[in-house]
Amino acid sequence: MHNQPIFNGWDADIIIPELKLAILWNGNWHYKEMFGNHSLKQVANRDDIKLKEINKMGWNHISIKDVDKNKMSSEKAFNIIIKMIENDEYNVSIY
Fold it and tell me: Which of 13, 15, 63, 72 has its CA 20 to 30 A from that of 57?
């Protein structure tokens, strides 16, 4: 599944119900001030609320930090996520 608001109205980019795993792909918007009326503080607060709702429902999460300088490719992220699932490593951010 993807982008379904199943966590008390909040969503995740990738949702794997069989593993009770929510994967969040966070780009620059989540880590640095952007243009317009973007508030980094508000985004961080929303991210905290979302993670709490995911965990409150008994799910785990993996957050992928994809910013300009780390060049996170989908292949690299996929390989890291597979290793984390195999090792039962959850509720972390990967860079």
Answer: 72
